[in-house]
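TL;DR need structure tokens for one chain.
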Amino acid sequence: QSFPFQGNALPELGRKGSYSPYERFTADDVAYIVEFGRQRGIRGMVEIDTPGHAASWCLGHPEICPSPSCPQPLNVASNATFEVISKLFGELTGGAKRKG
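>> reply
TL;DR here they are.
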């Protein structure tokens, strides 16, 4: 599994969770895709598969995973998990600005 999104709120997720530096996309890339679709009457939907299928997140934030030998699903008993998810979703959806 890979996490290729290199956002501003949690850049370590993409930096450590992508397959390589050449297989990442940025917040600017997402904004371009959203605008490209908007101009054509298409609304994009972001899908982040959590808490499962998120083993790559443990590379950037090991505190949100159950243990080093059990990297998924994310540890839903930890407040740190929800802080990371909240930051990520806030960035992807535009947060309070609603510009995502």
